[in-house]
Amino acid sequence: MVKRCSYGSCNTDSRYPERLGNVQFHPFPKPARNLEKCMKWIGLCGRGHQLSLDKLSNHSTAKHIYVCSKHFVDGRPTPAHPDPLPALTDAHGNVKPARRCSKFGPKLRPQPVPPRKTLRVDRMPDNTETISVGCDLQDKITTGEIATESLMEDTTTEESTPLTETECTDDQPQMEEKREQMEEKQEELERLKTLLAQKENENDLLRAKIRTCQAPYPLTAEVINNSSVPDYFRYCTGFTYDEFNKLCRFFRLPDNDTVPQTHIPLTYEKLDRHIQHMPLRQQFLLVLMRLRQNFDLKELAFKFQIDMHSVSTLFSSWIDFMYDRLGVSVWPHRDIITENMPGNYKSEFPTTFAILDCTEIKIEKPSSLLVQSQTYSNKSTDTFKSLIVCDPRGSIMFVSTLYSGSISDQELFRRCEIKDLLKGLLQCGYLKKGDGLMVDKGFLIENDVKELGLNLNIPPFAKSNLQTPVSDVEMTKKIAKHRVHVERAIAKVKQFKIVSGRIPNSMLGNINQIWFVVCMLSNFQQHIIQA
Prior knowledge:
531 residues; alpha/beta; three-stranded mixed beta sheet; 22 helices; elongated
């Protein structure tokens, strides 16, 4: 592999062994590993116009860029002297970059100008004021020896015009002054060139930071909240801006855009650059928008300026995290339920603390005929079924996993873990023997509930085919009036469009977690019934 030294005008090259000797090559720092050191070496080597971050980031060109050992204090980078010596410097310590090559080929250097011959002055007699000055430059300088036209003009003028001693004495300070001015201008030009190279290096550094570290995420909670569209934040997420901030506090996220994120409460399936630099509040906003409006991956990737794979990874990881965080027991003590009961419910059913109902969500038609027969329900479509339990105010206290749509309500009650939960509540005193549950007709679970020591409030005409007494009719109306709370709670859950439409087969892998999360998130919205 060809190795070339990139220091100043050094021509050490591995293709020419006669130049090498005991010289060793040390690789140039790469921007991806140590950007600051790379920029420093570019400045020290004096080739800011040739060495760029793009060239050093490209493996095909960077593999030929080295600095030889001749330019290090110890012959190689050491802890005491890790960087090469500065390239050729002027009197002011400014780095002189290597000569820039012309695109039309090498420049022809001008011929060296021979020094002017010392003027010979012959003094005339004392009574003569003017003395003639003779120059014999005409005999010594030929046409080929003089490189520039300006020098020819100066020589011709000197030969044709005789100088007096006074004029020679007066011209000498002027020439010295002009020479000093030219030197000052040259020094100023070198200083400006060095300053320009430094500014170009700074611009390259800023561009690299923008490309690698600063990904734009224009859609934030504050942008949506300040929208001129009425209730646009609630439309996108299902919550008000204040409710969103309360949710952030619950999930241990910053509750405003000025609070720094010091704790990452979740782990990701695969961490990439987009996810790593995206603020957690915006990640949470993305998840809520997907749950509420069921935006597809392409639309969310466009809104948040990330790729589709990052959207999928974010959503799956956040659903698992929210499922674990919301999976704590939310069944309150019977005294708390009694304290928050609506007045008319408390007067009619003071010891009934839970309302039960089943609901179904639609799914795509499975390809397996066996699965089709299991998921086909009486709604003439393929569904999943779940049991939901809420308190008298309509807050969800229990959500079962999803079962195939053909299962009956009674069988679902027996298979899900609700019976074990009720036993545990009775043992710890959250419920007492004789407390009641409320269900609709068709929920034939009276025997199962009595085995637990609880009562079941069910419309009376569902028990018998005999003529229904007036008292039973009144009881049926009362139960129907209060049982509607669980139906309204289910309707609030299905306002999350990710579960209100037909669930695609690609989502069935984590549909249980999604279903549980949207059910629990509905509790953070405004209560159906105010106490």
